[in-house]
């Protein structure tokens, strides 16, 4: 009797096990949950022995800019954890990255990293209490963004340039440009003006002397100097004759020298 029921019971148990729902997948125990806030990324993790809480600043990490990690580790039973934490920042899929051993300072652990590239990153947190534990937090690193002040400055310069160009266009529109009319190909060019001949000089008329006055002596041109031939003696230069005395003007008083000569002159025979 028992042998007859045994195969039947076994078949029912196998059919029930096959029809049952598969077990729900359990989240990995080493994954740190991340919540995005306005100013930071909040980290949280716990098991039956310890819990971990912390944050990553800023809320949107960017390549080439430092990010700060702040962590707190507490124990559910026993003495509080005070040992160091080993923090490693690496790109997803990479085996190595920036690693730091961080001691406890004022009740928390703090470190600063600088991601070199954008893309998915992992933050590994390792510590040892009753056993060795290694946790992982996954987040994204964005590309570098232009600082807000520089962006506003560039925008302001663009607006000023556009305003100046508009004002310049309005001013030039009020004053039409004067353009020279091009000459057609069959129209001859205007003749060039020739300079006029200079006017003839006015002839100089000699003024006759006034009667009763002596004409001024005519000026003779200077005699040309004749240079002696080489090898011959130069002719003697005659002494210069004194200039002739000018006759006294009509009605002028005789000079003192003339009076003396008249007194010394013998009287003429009568």
Short description:
The protein has 270 residues and is of the alpha+beta class.
The string of secondary-structure elements, in order, is HEEEEEEEEEHH
- Distinct helical segment count: 3
N/C terminus separation = 223 Å
Helix/strand/pairing category = alpha+beta
Order of neighbouring strands in the sheet with most strands: 1-2-3-4-7
Number of strands: 9
CATH architecture of one domain: Sandwich
Low-pLDDT windows of residues: 23-27
Quaternary state of the chains: single chain
Assign a percent range to the helix content: 10-25%
What percentage of the residues does DSSP assign to strands (E)?
15-25%
The name of the CATH superfamily of one domain reads Domain of unknown function DUF4426
- Average residue pLDDT: 74
Under the CATH scheme, which class of one domain? Mainly Beta
* Radius of gyration, taken over Cα atoms and rounded to an integer in Å: 63 Å
Describe the structure.
The protein is an alpha+beta fold and 270 residues long. The chain has a domain of 109 residues: Domain of unknown function DUF4426 (Immunoglobulin-like, Sandwich), CATH 2.60.40.3340. Helices cover 20% and strands 24% of the residues. It contains 3 helices and 9 strands, in the order αβββββββββαα. A 5-stranded antiparallel sheet has the order 1-2-3-4-7, with no helix packed on it. The protein has a 4-stranded antiparallel sheet with strand order 6-5-8-9, with no helix packed on it. The longest helix has 27 residues. About 2% of the residues have low confidence.
């Amino acid at each position: 009797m028992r042998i007859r029921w045994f195969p039947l019971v076994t078949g029912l148990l196998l059919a029930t096990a096959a029809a049952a729902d598969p077990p729900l997948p359990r989240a990995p125990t080493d994954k740190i949950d991340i919540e995005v806030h306005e100013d930071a990324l909040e980290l949280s993790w716990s098991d039956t022995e310890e819990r971990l809480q912390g944050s990553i600043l800023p809320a949107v990490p960017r390549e080439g800019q430092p990010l700060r990690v702040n962590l707190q580790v507490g124990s559910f039973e026993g003495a509080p954890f005070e040992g160091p934490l080993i923090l490693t920042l690496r790109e997803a899929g990479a085996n190595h990255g920036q690693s730091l051993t961080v001691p406890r300072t004022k009740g928390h652990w703090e470190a600063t990293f600088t991601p070199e590239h954008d893309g998915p990153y992992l933050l590994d947190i390792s510590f040892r209490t009753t056993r060795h534990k290694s946790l992982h937090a996954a987040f994204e690193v964005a590309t570098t963004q232009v600082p807000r002040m520089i962006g506003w400055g560039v925008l302001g310069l663009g607006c000023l340039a556009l305003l100046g160009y508009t004002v310049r266009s309005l001013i030039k529109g009020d004053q039409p440009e004067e353009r020279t009319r091009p000459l057609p190909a069959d129209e001859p060019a205007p003749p060039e003006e020739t300079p006029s001949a200079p006017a003839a000089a006015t002839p100089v008329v000699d003024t006759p002397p006034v009667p009763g006055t002596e004409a001024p002596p005519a000026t003779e041109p200077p005699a040309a100097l004749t240079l002696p031939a080489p090898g011959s003696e130069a002719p003697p230069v005659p002494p210069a004759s004194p200039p002739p005395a000018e006759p006294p003007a009509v009605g002028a008083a005789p000079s003192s020298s003339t009076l003396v000569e008249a007194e010394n002159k013998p009287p003429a025979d009568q």
